[in-house]
Amino acid sequence: MPNTPPPPRRRGTARTDALLQVTLDLAAEVGYAGLSIEAIARRAGVGKHTIYRRWPSKAALLMDALNRAWTTDLDHRDTGDVRRDLREQFVRSAAALSGPPIGPVYRAVIAEAQSDPSLRAALDERFLRTVEQRTLDRIARGRDTGELRADTDLAFATEILCGGLYYRHLLTTRPVDETAIDKLLDMFLRAYATDPTPPERRTGDHRALPAENRGTRSAENRG
Asked: What are phi and psi of 130, to 5 degrees?
């Protein structure tokens, strides 16, 4: 009976992607405290040295795994309408933070980071900065196309946009729903948009407004 050749070993990007997925899956099962390089290597079918060649610690590995899931599935679109694109991404982000694999792992990491300085540094450097950068890039394009004022403090605006949603999700029992997202974006655009007029007022269609606001908006238009 002829010998069956072993399957080709995964290299480069494919192996990295596989290790990141195994890490995220295992972290969702056992939490950050229960996660280990040994367990990741065992489930992925590789030696520990394979992981340590790419990542110096389990914190760095897990942050890259979260980062991969986030930027792959939750990056910003660019339709030419900065409000629409921010809203669409924030709605998807809120859904991702509410369930697996990102939600439970992220909550566990936040809790552990309070007493683990190296994890906190990895969380900031390898995950949060990347998430903020995606939002920063999108509002920078909005400024470049004239939707946002030229003097917009982009870094601060990004921190407020992302921070508002993360605070509500991680530290309160209030939902990060579409109403909350709309209020956050309305506040942002009132501060930074070159034309802060809501889209429904630009088209003259007040049907999209809550009933209690229609009379007020109509009076404003008459004034």
From this structure: -70, -45
C-alpha distance from residue 130 to each of 22, 119, 136, 145, 171 (Å): 21, 16, 10, 23, 21
Q: Can you tell me the mean pLDDT for 176-205?
A: 82
What span, in angstroms and rounded, lies between the C-alpha atoms of 194 and 88?
21
Residue-wise pLDDT tens digits, 112-168: 899 999 889 988 988 888 889 989 999 999 999 999 999 989 999 999 999 988 888
Instruction: Write a three-state SS string for the chain.
Output: CCCCCCCCCCCHHHHHHHHHHHHHHHHHHHHHHHCCHHHHHHHHCCCHHHHHCCCCCHHHHHHHHHHHHHHHHCCCCCCCCHHHHHHHHHHHHHHHHCCCCHHHHHHHHHHHHCCCHHHHHHHHHHHHHHHHHHHHHHHHHHHHCCCECCCCCHHHHHHHHHHHHHHHHHHCCCCCCHHHHHHHHHHHHHHHECCCCCHHHHHCCHHHCCHHHHHHHHHHHHC
Q: Which two tokens stand for residue 97?
A: 């933070």
Is residue 136 within 8 A of residue 171, CB to CB? The reply is no
Q: Are 152 and 143 in contact (CB under 8 A)?
A: yes
